[in-house]
Specification:
- The chain has 365 residues and is an alpha/beta fold.
- Helices cover 45% and strands 14% of the residues.
- The protein contains 13 helices and twelve strands.
- The longest helix is centred in the last third of the chain and has 25 residues.
- The protein starts with 15 loop residues before the first helix and ends with a helix.
- The relative contact order is 0.12.
């Protein structure tokens, strides 16, 4: 346990939390605990140069608190880059609630979480993410105005997220195959929850050959039957003979083990932080001739949908803005090829360039 008796005894280099924040250059962390409701959560604000930090809340049964911390730090950093590369006037933030989303939810828990969000006075705006639904956000909104994705407003961001992934996937196909048609292409979708199902629906309309897997059997069977997809096992998904691998569940599925098994030409999915190690696996996919669509650029439809609510814009505006993901991904891939730099690094550079430029505009006179 990190224990300090006197303030002069503090050595920041020995504090694993401060070290983690420094690694990703975060502005602020808020640890939330409430014994009465069982709430244990972390809110991470990564960067607010472009505007208030917007990013969803994820509810997951993490194995350790450090695992939850690492996830929220990576996810919030990804939101900064996602909002920047999408041309939105928003910074990046994220929240995680440690708990089982199927058994531990309550109005009291989410209202208490809403009070913590409100304590940040608008520096962080929350929304839905994995394990969270619109009813949960309704409860949060009873305690704070700093929440988006509510029923009757922009609502569920999943359709816009899926549409962005779909058009970005088509942009990758154009670069890799010479045509952006996905008809007849073999696509393996890992995770068919909200976003995954909408993506499968779009692929089915274009007559792609679809393979699906998911940890939740009823959802998996429903999607497979509805759209004529082939069910494969959770681990077997990596061995499918496919053109496109679409990870739409949790991150880090592109790693040392899976890369030796993946038989695909494109990696394009909705999951966050798909590369277990950006530097190692981002270069590896490039060396293998696989086009990797950087996840934060590809799955930006959700935050575009939330931004439309923040700014009072229409749902049609959000869907139209998501169409721009096609051009964004195309530009990233072209620049990656011409410069011989992995796509993730090109996307990072594009996001950082905008943050740096706007940061100069916001400097005091």
């Amino acid at each position: 346990m990190f224990e300090v008796k006197n303030i002069e005894d503090v050595n920041l280099s020995e504090n694993p939390v401060i070290a983690q924040m420094s690694k990703y250059n975060h502005e602020q962390l808020l640890f939330c605990n409430d014994n009465a409701t069982g709430l244990k959560a972390i809110i991470a604000v990564h960067n607010t140069v472009l505007g208030p930090a917007l990013g969803g809340t994820r509810m997951w049964m993490y194995n350790t608190e450090m695992e939850a911390l690492n996830d929220v730090l990576r996810l919030s950093r990804g939101m900064t880059y996602k909002n920047s590369i999408s041309g939105l006037n928003l910074g990046g933030g994220k929240a995680v609630i440690i708990g089982d989303a199927r058994s531990m939810k309550s109005e009291a828990l989410f209202r208490r979480f809403g009070k913590f969000v409100n304590s940040l006075a608008g520096k962080y705006i929350t929304a839905e993410d994995v394990g969270i639904g619109t009813q949960d956000m309704n409860w949060v909104s009873m305690e704070t105005d700093h929440v988006v994705g509510l029923p009757g407003k922009s609502g569920d961001p999943s359709p816009v997220t899926a549409h962005g992934v779909y058009v970005g996937m088509k942009a990758c196909a154009k670069e890799q195959f010479g045509s952006d048609s996905l008809t007849g292409k073999k696509v393996a979708v890992q995770g068919v929850g909200h976003v995954g199902e909408y993506l499968v629906a779009a692929l089915a309309k274009e007559n792609a050959e679809i393979y699906v897997t998911d940890i939740h059997e009823p959802t998996l069977k429903h999607v497979a039957e509805k759209y004529g997809a082939h069910i494969v096992g959770l681990d077997e998904i990596y061995d499918v003979d496919m053109d496109i691998y679409a990870p739409c569940a949790l991150g880090a599925t592109v790693n040392d083990d899976t890369l030796s098994r993946l038989n695909c030409s494109i990696i394009a999915g909705a999951a966050n932080n798909q590369l277990k190690n950006e530097e190692i696996h981002g270069k590896a996919v490039m060396d293998m001739g696989i086009i990797y669509a950087p996840d934060f650029a590809l799955n930006a439809g959700g935050v575009i949908n939330c931004y439309s609510e923040v700014e009072g814009l229409s749902s049609s505006w959000a869907m139209g803005k998501a169409e721009d993901i096609y051009t964004t991904i195309s530009n990233i891939v072209k620049r990656s090829k011409s410069e011989g730099i992995p796509t993730y690094k090109i996307a990072n550079q594009m996001a950082e360039e905008r943050i740096e430029a706007i940061g100069k505009v916001k400097l005091p006179m």
